[in-house]
Amino acid sequence: MKSGTRSPFRRQFVAGLAAVIGIGLAAPAAWAADMAKNSAATLARDGQGALNQLYANVPVARSIGGKAKAILVFPKVTKAGFGIGGQYGEGVLLKGGKPVAYYNTAGISSGLQAGAQTYGYAMLFMNDGALKSLDSTQGFEVGVGPSVVVMDEGRAKTTTSTTALNDDVYAFIFGQKGLMAGLGIQGNKITKINPK
Predict the structure, then answer these.
(1) Domain of 60?
(2) Mapping DSSP to helix (H, G, I), strand (E, B) and coil, where does residue 155 land?
(3) Quick one: DSSP state of residue 69?
(4) How far is CA 23 from the centre of its chain?
């Protein structure tokens, strides 16, 4: 093949790859537009309900939650992609069981992943310094700044000890539905929002 010429297969492959990347990058914005319709009352109700369900299924979460300064709950995060994926969800910050602020979580990931999935997660902030970093002007990125220990619902059910709570934040992933490799919250950006 002469240099500078491209086979039809290669052109189709490049066009297909560009389309997949475009969809992967546009997905979080589309979800944001769709999911941003949640009202403050809906987020507060769904967040408290999800936290109660987590506590019922994972006793260690309830034990740690009782010692937390505040709890940020994202009752439903949607993740989808093929090679490149995106995830988005909205949640509520609870202090003393009362809603005090609202946030979204969003991220783009690449690697071995295909499909769609929904899940929720709760972040239990154990000290004032970690809680203060949540409202950083650059947004809060999971894995950057305060130490975050992440547990999925299955692993957390077998954990019983809460004696050494030395980390800043404990995150519990729950309610996973759908099949997708590469589930995680590492690198997710959390930003304050003002729902109606």
Answers:
(1) 8-193
(2) helix
(3) S
(4) 19
What gap in Å lies between CA 57 and CA 122, rounded to an integer?
13
Residue type, 188: N
Q: List pLDDT tens digits, range 72-128.
A: 999 999 887 666 678 899 999 999 999 999 999 988 765 555 567 888 999 999 999
Strand 70-95, strand 98-125: pairing: antiparallel
The secondary structure of 76-115 as a DSSP string is: EEEEEEEEEEEEEEEEEEEETTEEEEEEEEEEEEEEEEEE
CA–CA distance from 98 to each of 89, 159, 195 (Å)?
20, 27, 16
Structurally, the chain folds into a number of domains equal to 1
Q: How far apart are the first and last CA of the chain?
A: 60
| Residue 139: strand, helix, or coil | coil
What is the average pLDDT across 160-185? 68
Q: Rg of the chain over CA atoms, in angstroms?
A: 19
21 lies in some domain: yes
pLDDT at residue 109, as a whole number: 65
Tell whether 143 is covered by a domain.
yes
> Do 172 and 156 touch, CB atoms closer than 8 A?
yes
